[in-house]
Amino acid sequence: MDLQRSEDTEEQIEQPEHIQEQDIRISPAEEMPVDGPREEESEQLFLPWDRFSAWLHCICVVGFDLELGQAVEVIYPHHAKLTEKEYFSCACPTTGILAISWHVFPISSLVIGCLGDTQFCFRFRQAASRRSSLGCFWDHFDRDAPVCLKKDLGHFYGYVYFRQVRDKSLKRGYFQKSLVLISKLPYVTFFHSLLKLIAPEYFEKQEPCLEAACNDIDRWPMPCPGKILTLPIMGVVMKLRIPTCSDKPGTSQLVQTTMVIETIVLVFVLFCRCFYPVFFHIQMLWELVLLGEAIVVMAPSPAESSDTVLALVSCIAPLRYCSDFRPYFTIHDSEFKEYTTRTQAPPSVILGVTNPFFAKTLQHWPHIIRIGDMKQTEMAKQMKVKKLKNLKTLDSKPGVYSAYKTFLNKDEDIIKQLQKGVQQKRPSAAQNAILRRYFLELTQSFIIPLERYVASLMPLQKSICPWKSPPQLKHFVQEEFMKTLEKAGPQLTSRLKGDWIGLYRQFLKSPNFDSWFRSRRKEMMQKLEALHLEALCDEDLQLRIQKHTEVETVDLVLKLKDKLMQAQREQLPVRAGTMTKLQAHIESVILSLPDDLQGILQKPATP
């Protein structure tokens, strides 16, 4: 697809913003309105490539060179940078080969017999020193997304489209190349759909096609949850709705191109396909992921590896999995030594691997899932969890290898339901819906008692006094929470029996609980600050200052301005008009002071 065709497409599609490129002159650092920017105003604040950066960090092309091996040939846009730590693998820092290039050439696909196109994803750490120029906008657009769909603060995702076809004109005899999208957004299915549009065109028309695609993406609206986003790309219009945190969990969202594809935007891959070889153990896998246990997935291909890891991570949704996970992990990853050492216990991480070398290197890990093809006649043989000593090579039979004892009794009903579906050749979409609903209801039954108890830690609204600091949240006391489970535990919504108390005790020690509670505590503290701000807004400040000296009034104004700025910065969930009304109150108080003080207090404060 050439550049001219991209321009024609732009003329045919109504853009969300109605601003010509030459009119964009405002820096994102400029001060925004008190109640936050309206969408049409915020669009004016973006500089060239800001919209592209909101979706992607860059697009890479990786080819195979007979002398150099894998090599990054092109990075678009050309100004995009990756730090040295993000670039290079610590396993071979002197070779100058990008770490990315080791991920985008599937080890299994390097076998000559494996031809065609392959899609998968990987994940790698972002340098700690990296800072985004879109920080305030990220906060604005990211706050309404579900926790599982928020941008990843510490990692990049790499979405890969790999092609291997016979080509006698090349010395190697095969064309081998990957197109990679690097992004901080965990929109797995969306980016795979995008790659299906871009990659075939690129392999046919080369670099001009990438330039046109980048220009198209830089005209996209920001990834704002809850709205139907029109995304023109290379002559096709995609329509995407990113879910919001208020959406009902488990409902499908819409991605449209020339065809309609109903899908979940994030990582809701086909559970039934990923868990088919081990579906007798899905409940145990749910517990392992919930508790943040160290898990390694051994699969025959990067596609199966990444799909299975992402399915595991999303099986506890709407709870966010907060430990590290690597959909496709290689021996060239910079964390290879860290994750394979035997001098300490394996970390809380889920790894997806394909290299047979890992069968020996990670044999000491406590939980190993072997994914592969399994005939229906072999299903009965994998009902029992296998012992770890039985796993010697990557050729071991599919199954779960672990010494873990589940806290909850096995749910025979879901097993029978899935097994019946296999026997009756039920459509995979139906099997997938059954499994997804099962995981969702199980997680909700587990998390509701925690939500109920944490909500009780919130002070009563009547205890909030506008002229005193907001009251403090009560402390989370583990034994108090355990006592609530007797009458208001998961037995109210789940039929499963077992040691729920033991499962909760173990969960409270896990990274998933720590992150969940920090997030809930932050939300409640912001709610307290918002209620305190609303209480101040309802007060008569003119009447209040009549009882104070001039010095005390100036001090009050300064404190209120600081509080207002904090509310803007943290985007507190106040009722509509609160910020504007409080700003008007502050201005009226300033006007009642002498002229010299008015000049000082009316100067804009530094954020």
Automatic annotation (TrEMBL):
Instruction: Name the segments for region: Disordered.
Output: 1-40
> What is the name attached to this protein's record?
UDENN domain-containing protein
- InterPro entries given in the database record: DENN_C, DENND6, Tripartite_DENN
Compositional bias segments (type: Basic and acidic residues): 15-24
The similarity comment for this entry is: Belongs to the DENND6 family.
- The record's gene field reads dennd6aa
Per the record, GO CC terms? Answer: recycling endosome
Taxonomy, superkingdom: Eukaryota
- The chain positions of domain UDENN read 57-527
Q: Name one GO molecular function term.
A: guanyl-nucleotide exchange factor activity
Organism per entry: Electrophorus electricus (Electric eel)
